[in-house]
Design brief:
The structure is a single chain. With about 425 residues, this protein is of the alpha+beta class. The chain is about 55% helix and about 10% strand. It is built from 14 helices and 9 strands. The strands form 2 sheets. Strands 3, 4, 5, 6 and 7 form a 5-stranded antiparallel sheet that branches. Helix 13 crosses helix 14. The longest helix is centred in the middle third of the chain and has 34 residues. It starts with 11 loop residues before the first helix and ends in a 5-residue tail after the last helix.
Length: about 425
């Protein structure tokens, strides 16, 4: 970004809008970041039997709750407070057949105290999960993350003079264009607004209509027939994580890699198709990313509009690669840590972002030595890395990610 192109200072109203967007994003993220003990929200135990919710009760009101007993499939699960605290405890008699039941039938027992933790009794098909504990935000706008970046891009380009608003430009349409508002692509003002002034807007020709319908059909096939099918395999694998063999673990990892691509790129195809029916052309957001031979190339093909936004609105203002190697590496890490936080307010997302940032730093340090490797080897290393990184993106917590990766290597025999 060339700051010498700045023409005017932002109006106070623009600064207030930008500040309000950032504050709203932070508040919505707090519900995921604050630990249960400090968040102020109550913890609730949710009991599901045979996949159906059967009971729920508060466990963080300052007083121990009464011992509860649940019976199903000939097994009895007993839940009690841990000592004098209101924390769930699974005593030795957790899964007790009314006559006799070996303890190994229980896949998880002990004490749980944080939101998201569970006690599972496989024979009884009973799961008790702690929920809540975070700051209660009554609502969060759908597509807030995309909306936020898009508005920041608008403010940045108006500030630098890269985009000069013209009479009749609809800021409301730009911010709330329904095909893209929930999941992108992130629209660049200088590309979107000029199309509104063209005669094709709201008057598409037959080629636009045909291309739009074709894109909608392709996107629907990706999402419904492919992404949902892979999603079923992946979700089943995470539910039965402790039973996975090494091949099954790799199937779950690869399945999520494909699920995520078909789901997100399918949505972008649908959004592009709908926009084409209005005479608008959206930027390409995916360009066969899994063909990439480096992580740097991957981010030129995956979620292209996000990469462009982060490069122009964060990487370049930080100094880009103009201030020495160490500063360049730090800027890359900052960009991908921000990307991780943007994708989700959780430690696993930050780990995912950090991995991608570190991978690009390693590629830069390695330099031409890596480029001399055979293409197949470079592609294999990149694809393997992307698959491993996606595990942290999908995992509910750090322990779950390490468990799946461990099983992919050892099949569970290391325990």
């Amino acid at each position: 970004m060339n700051l010498s192109r700045v023409r005017t200072k932002p109006a106070p109203a623009d600064l207030l809008v930008a500040a309000a967007i950032v504050v709203l994003a932070v508040l919505c993220g707090l519900r995921f970041w604050l630990p249960p003990g400090q968040a102020g929200g109550p913890l609730t135990a949710v009991v599901t039997i045979d996949g159906q919710e059967a009971d729920r009760f508060p466990v963080s009101q300052g007083e121990p709750f009464q011992v509860r007993t649940y019976t199903n499939n000939g097994y009895t699960l007993v839940v009690s407070p841990a000592g004098d605290s209101p924390i769930l405890s699974a005593p030795d008699g957790l899964c007790v057949l009314e006559s006799d039941c070996p303890n190994q039938d229980c896949v998880r027992s002990g004490v749980i105290s944080q939101s998201g933790q569970s006690i599972v009794c496989l024979p009884a098909r009973i799961v008790i999960t702690l929920t809540g504990g975070a700051v209660e935000v009554g609502w969060a706008p759908l597509g807030l993350s995309f909306f936020t970046f898009q508005q920041l891009w608008l403010l940045k380009e108006v500030y630098t003079g890269e985009y000069v608003p013209a009479p009749g430009d609809s800021l409301l349409l730009y911010g709330l264009f329904f095909p893209t508002v929930t999941s992108g692509p992130i629209l660049r003002p200088g590309i979107f607004f000029p199309q509104l002034r063209e005669k094709g807007f709201l008057h598409p020709d037959w080629s636009d209509a045909a291309a739009g319908i074709y894109a909608i059909c392709c996107g629907t096939i990706k999402k419904v027939l492919l992404a949902d099918a892979f999603g079923t395999v992946v979700n089943n694998g995470w539910v039965h994580l402790e039973e996975l063999s090494a091949p099954a673990a790799w199937l779950v990892i690869l399945g999520y890699t494909l699920q995520l691509y078909f789901d997100f790129s399918g949505y972008c195809d649908i959004a592009a198709g709908v926009a084409r029916l209005f005479g608008l052309r959206l930027p390409m957001n995916f360009d066969s990313p899994y063909r990439s031979a480096s992580v740097t190339e991957f981010w030129k093909r995956w979620h292209i509009t996000l990469t462009t936004f982060l490069r122009e609105c964060l990487y370049f203002p930080l100094g880009g690669s103009r201030r020495g190697a160490i500063r360049t590496y730090c800027n890359i890490l900052i960009v991908f840590l921000v990307s991780g936080f943007w994708h989700g307010a959780g430690w696993t997302f930050l780990v995912w972002g950090a991995l991608h940032g570190l991978a690009q730093v390693v590629e830069r340090v390695w330099g031409r030595g890596r480029d001399r490797l055979p293409f197949v080897l470079r592609w294999g290393l990149t694809f393997l890395f992307v698959n491993i990184a996606w595990v942290f993106f999908r995992a509910p917590d750090w322990a779950g990610a390490l468990e799946l990766l461990g099983r992919a290597v050892t099949g569970g025999f290391a325990k």
